């Protein structure tokens, strides 16, 4: 406890500096609200339920998009490594999409599905699928040949080998790809919600920002930052647990 | 083209096939892309999807040609690339500099370590409205946003690279009387270069994503704003033309970085290994 406190002391220092600079008038409150007012605004937003409902809207969009990306992208990557035919059909498409800055998909999903939930889910799904697919493919491709041979010599069927040998071998890189996708999902979510939304955390940030309610805007921004941070840390912990069987 | 039945059981993981077969598979990959493009054209022409959702490929390519001929591409894609690359350059220099500071000074490590561990995984794009408040709606806020997003991979890669240098290398350089400055420029930075370049290679696509995202959120000049505007007007050819233009530019930049890496690491075993295959 004290160790992590000492470790994060610089953050505390910045918080104190923030409060002091705004209180003493070194920085105008029009540019930076005092930290204490941000905390008060945050408490109010939580008490009114606004923050929670909007956060749930955002998490729903990111969660569904990401889940689809993991299932479909992961399967695509593993089958690409497993079957030459699938590889030939799918990998040129993956390679063509790989260098695409994922944010360019926003106007396309907006064209197709408007600016509602559907377009945001589709955006997150399409954007996050590529890193998952590539992670799964690289991992599955690196499945040890000796393992495959011994599995086959012991009479494992092709499907059994896929599930028992290739998928576990692909896991570390697949999980790494999912981590990239997780970070990307937050970026795409916030960007698309800032552009156009009627609910969600990005919407709150934009709404308070244009309205000049800067303490509430900072509170929403810090909430998004906190959620992204917590999601990554939680995922890392999960990842370590999932990979425990590898020494 | 070999039919799928000709090589049904050939697992991708099996021994390398002969040269002729490899060429055939390569050709099949080209055919796959070609089929996709033909499918795009056919679906768009058939009217299954309305034109505002999917313009024919040919119309999209015409739009790209039009953008090139009229010079509009410089005002859209050019401006976006300028923002992305300036932000990327600042992130590169700043990331390497801060990384060096962290490795050399305990105070810098104490200060930056928690900032990095909190800052890296947070979605920094959420701070854009704050940057708009501080730096205005023009280039400065967008470039700052790009830098803030792109700096973290460079920074961490620099630290990892510098810390991974073999002790013997530093000891022998010191032994031969290298000054601190020469040690840094002639031994440590070159030794850490592969890692640093990896960090830059991660940061470059991030810079592009963020530059375009900021333009979409804020509007104004740049291809992001232009594409979003076209999308709102249902000018789908312009949207898809924008995607093609950005893809080509992004592809060239990413390939260029990879070439730069090979060039800079000619002396490194990594490069020798690759060309040896």
Structure commentary:
The complex is a heterodimer of chains A (247) and B (277). Chain A is mainly alpha-helical. Helices cover 82% and strands 0% of the residues of chain A. Chain A has one domain: MetI-like (MetI-like fold, Orthogonal Bundle). The longest helix of chain A has 38 residues, at 158-195. The mean pLDDT of chain A is 89. Chain B has 277 residues and is mainly alpha-helical. Chain B has two domains: 4-49; 60-276, MetI-like (MetI-like fold), CATH 1.10.3720. Chain B is built from eleven helices and no strands. Chain B has helices spanning 19-46, 57-70, 72-104, 106-119, 128-135, 139-163, 167-175, 180-218, 223-232, 236-264, 269-276. In chain B, helix 2 packs across helix 10 (236-264) and helix 7 packs across helix 8. The chains are: A mainly alpha (247), B mainly alpha (277). Chains A and B meet through helix 2, helix 4, helix 5, helix 6 and helix 9 of A and helix 1, helix 4, helix 5, helix 8 and helix 9 of B.
Q: TL;DR of this structure?
A:
The complex is a heterodimer of chains A (247) and B (277). With 247 residues, chain A is mainly alpha-helical.
Helix content of chain B: over 70%
Structural class based on helices, strands and sheet pairing of chain A: mainly alpha
Largest protein interface, residues of each chain: A-B, 61 and 61 residues
CATH architecture descriptor text of the largest domain in chain B: Orthogonal Bundle
* CATH class annotation of chain A: Mainly Alpha
Number of strands of chain B: 0
SS-based structural class of chain B? mainly alpha
- Given the C-alpha coordinates, what overall shape of chain B results? globular
- Overall domain count of chain B: 2
Q: What's the CATH architecture name of chain A?
A: Orthogonal Bundle
């Amino acid at each position: 406890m004290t160790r992590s406190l000492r470790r994060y002391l610089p953050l505390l220092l910045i918080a104190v500096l923030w409060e002091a600079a705004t209180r003493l008038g070194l920085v105008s409150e029009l540019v930076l609200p005092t930290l204490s007012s941000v905390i008060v605004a945050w408490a109010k937003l939580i008490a009114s339920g606004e923050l929670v409902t909007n956060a749930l809207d955002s998490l729903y969009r990111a969660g569904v998009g990401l889940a689809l990306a993991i299932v479909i992208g992961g399967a695509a990557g593993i089958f690409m490594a497993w079957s030459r035919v699938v590889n030939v059909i799918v990998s040129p498409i993956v390679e063509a999409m790989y260098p695409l800055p994922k944010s360019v998909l926003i106007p396309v999903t907006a064209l197709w599905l408007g600016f509602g939930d559907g377009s945001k889910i589709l955006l997150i799904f399409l954007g996050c699928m590529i890193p998952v697919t590539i992670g799964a493919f690289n991992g599955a491709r690196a499945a040890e040949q000796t393992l495959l041979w011994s599995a086959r010599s012991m009479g494992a069927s092709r499907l059994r080998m896929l599930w028992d040998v290739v998928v576990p071998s692909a896991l570390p890189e697949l999980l790494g790809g999912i981590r990239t996708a997780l970070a990307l999902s937050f970026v795409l979510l916030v960007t698309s919600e800032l552009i156009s939304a009627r609910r969600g955390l990005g919407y709150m940030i934009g709404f308070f920002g244009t309205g000049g309610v800067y303490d509430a805007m900072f509170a929403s921004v810090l909430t998004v930052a906190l959620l992204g941070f917590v999601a990554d840390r939680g995922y890392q912990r999960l990842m370590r647990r999932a990979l425990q069987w590898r020494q | 083209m070999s039919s799928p039945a000709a090589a049904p059981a050939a697992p991708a993981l099996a021994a390398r096939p002969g040269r002729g077969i490899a060429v055939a598979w390569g050709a099949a990959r080209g055919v796959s892309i070609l089929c996709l493009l033909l499918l795009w054209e056919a679906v768009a022409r058939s009217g299954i999807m309305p034109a505002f959702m999917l313009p024919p490929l040919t119309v999209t390519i015409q739009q790209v040609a039009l953008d090139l001929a009229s010079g509009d591409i410089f005002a859209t894609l050019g401006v976006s690339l300028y923002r992305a690359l300036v932000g990327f350059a600042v992130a590169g220099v700043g990331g390497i500099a801060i990384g060096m500071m962290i490795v050399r000074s305990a105070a810098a490590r104490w200060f930056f370590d928690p900032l990095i561990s909190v800052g890296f995984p947070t979605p920094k794009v959420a701070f854009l409205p704050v940057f708009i408040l501080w730096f205005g709606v023009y280039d400065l806020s967008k470039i700052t946003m790009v830098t803030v997003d792109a700096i973290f991979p460079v920074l961490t890669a620099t630290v990892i690279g510098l810390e991974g240098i073999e002790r013997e290398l530093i000891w022998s350089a010191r032994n031969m009387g290298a000054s601190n400055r020469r040690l840094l420029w002639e031994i440590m930075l070159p030794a850490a270069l592969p890692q640093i370049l990896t960090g830059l290679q991660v940061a470059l696509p991030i810079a592009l994503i963020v530059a375009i995202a900021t333009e979409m959120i804020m509007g104004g000049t740049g291809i992001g704003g232009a594409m979003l505007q076209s999308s709102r007007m249902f000018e789908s050819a312009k949207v898809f033309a924008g995607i093609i233009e950005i893809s080509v530019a992004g592809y060239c930049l990413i390939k260029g970085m990879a070439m730069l890496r090979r060039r800079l690491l000619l002396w490194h075993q990594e490069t020798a290994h690759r060309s040896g295959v």
